[in-house]
Amino acid sequence: MFDSEIQRILDFVARGIGVRVVGAPGSGKTTVVRSVMGNLEKTGVAVHFITGLRTHRTIPYSAIKGLGLDLRPGRSGVFDIADVLASQLATHGKHLLVVDDLHLVDSESLAVLEAVRRRSDCPMVATAPETWEFSKGQLAVLNNGREAHLQLDPLHYEQVHLLIAQVLGAPADADTTARILTKSAGNPRLIVRITETASLSNLLVMNNKQWSMATNTLWNEHLRGTLEALLAELSADEFTALHTMAILGTARVDVLQKVIQPEALEGLECRGFLSVMDDHHNGPIAAISPPVIADYFRGNKNLRDRKLLRRKIAGVLEAVPRATQETQTTADCLARVLATLRLEKGDGDAVTARHFHDHNADRERIRFARWEANKSVANAASLLRIYWGAPVDVQRASQVCRETTTSDADPKDVLFVAITRAMLAVHTGEGPGAAVDILQKFAAEHPHHAEEANDAITFLSASHGRVPSGTPTRDFDTEPSGMGSLVHGLLELYRFRPAAAYDAVDGPEDDDLFSHLRPFIRGFALFAVGRIDESLVFALDWRTEARKNLDQFGVVTSSYIAAHGLLYRGHFEEAEYLMSSVFAMGRPGFVVDALYDAMLRLAGLRHATSATPPALSIAAQARTDVPDVGPLPGIGKGAYELIAHESAKPSTFDRKAVKLIRRQLKSGYILEAMMTALLCTCLNPGRPVLDLLQMILRDSGVTVHDQLIAIATAVVEGDHQLLGLLLKHYEPDIDTYQVGMLLRGALKRHVIDGDTAAADALAQASSMFAVRFPSANEQLSFNSFRTTPLTEREIEVAVLAGHRTNVEIAEHLGISARTVENHISNALRKTGATSRNGLFMLVGNSLPPRGAGIG
Length: 855
Fold this sequence. Notes:
By secondary structure, this protein is mostly helical.
């Protein structure tokens, strides 16, 4: 979970710099520090460990005496103890002071530490809560010498997925993972406790080698002790405030301020128990964080029935005026939307997911009750529209479709219900054929809507089988906001005619039956035509608006577009966070569930191209009962499985890739074929795939990739002189990141093929290109040819071999220079690389960059 954080601390300590590790209770501070201690003790560093205890913070010298210092009788004052500890730190060898939970260390021990730190330059690693207001004594200890600051943020979806698998011995499904993340707010200790106790209480069951929820709750009595420990430091007013918020649920901040004292609210916010979010309709809203705390209050028999408190809240709610709604939309630059996304990352996606869950549940409950009272088509359409984005209650949706009366109904609502019935048939496994039958029957019974029904049939058939050949005969320009124009635009997108797709949906979406389809086509058409930055700004702005509106459909569709743009630009950390925030909401409705699966495969793609892939990939949560080809990149599973599965040699990969791309072309999914060919060319450049890519781009009239194609052609033809000229005169464009991938992929291919001269030439070209266009982003690279895998230590040494000497590597890793030399020799032999630089280029992407985590 914390490999990059541990490595950062080790690097700081090696340079004599102390580290302050901060995070919420349960965020993993102690785990990180103990791992650092274990790593350093293996290299001979003497670690002096002090821990603060809540029960001992008023006992003089209790923390410092835990070191077991050899004190002479009668010499137990501050300076006496400081003399003994300082003399130990001055002995031969490297030393490190570690203070876990500095905020709980008694005052006398703090005085000893301050005196020692004034006399010694030994670095210190200390842990403390992120929002703690340090006393003067604690600051005196911390502020001696150089100090780095390390923040432990909440875990994101992918990390939670791995942690649950470690606890249970097998992965959980997407909905269970999302629920545990949401309830814990990404807190590692709570994730482990919720998972363990849910398993102990039989709330989790094994289905198809994955754990899933047996009920709709994870709360159980075994969690009580964990929550009591978490809330132990609260004052009486803060405890009552949390109880009030548990009764209220998610509430407007102005409402909370009427029933909770400002000091209590401020205290809860400082301690991290209050999460505030901007609601587009209601202004700032707040809720308990982590949400499992609310379950504690609701599930505690001694707390949940406080009638006076409930009456006070009810009285305030009646008196609160309605907030005015404000609509604000802005168009800004790429730097702004990326900065907003990075800022959002620090808030944790679990809190936002919780707001979505509550909002969707409330809407569904109210609209279903309205439908039960009057089973009209209008009420049915209002309820079913929720399921196009939010999780589907199949039983309830089927009941609504079955029992709704259609007399005296708005024709648009009747059509919407019919299309939803067709979508539901696909979702429940009946298949596209059953969906088409439903719509054909509807068209026969309602001839006035036959045209729209046929458009829906075309949409379903093209999205779940193949794109019809030829062009439509209807004049779509006369109906810019009609159903036909949307379907036409989507088909043009599938066929990789992005300009035509964009033109087809050029109009307002006010009357669209398929909500959000128009901006989706527009945004992805911008990406497909090569206007990547415009696509990113469009999609991320749309996503921000959808989040404010608590619109899950809009969040999923906009995030799919933005994820492609971020990955194409090499912004892996931002892309993984963005996709993680979608996964945290759980599997969405039946219209966008295919995009959800596509993003699971996109998130797993980075693992698939890693030199040391994890045993458990997040892509395993995507449904496998889907075809290899699909209308949009990632919806078909073929490209992911091609890259994720090992190949014996590059020529085998070429053959499989060509076969897949031809199948995509045969189905009419030209956009997916182009993206597959482009990715395969950059990861493992070969003539057969490059020929197909050139043909697709030429037939589509897309010229934005011309520089990349020219460089790829020189690479596969082995024309190193031309390649040098092309790279020398290369002008940065949308493919700058892809050119770096291409050069690395070619280098690895030549190493596997045993072409030493070509490998050396590509290593030199790749290095020169990296110097000219340095990237702070991790390079994606192909590592599926694993006939002689390196050990973790060999990979670690190889990563450093490109820019450090053997002596520097030995000092950094705490091993001998001879051992480093042996590791490099073994790695050169196993990989076939001919130089240290070539070895570095082969495996340099296998570890995350310093300080970078997985979003």
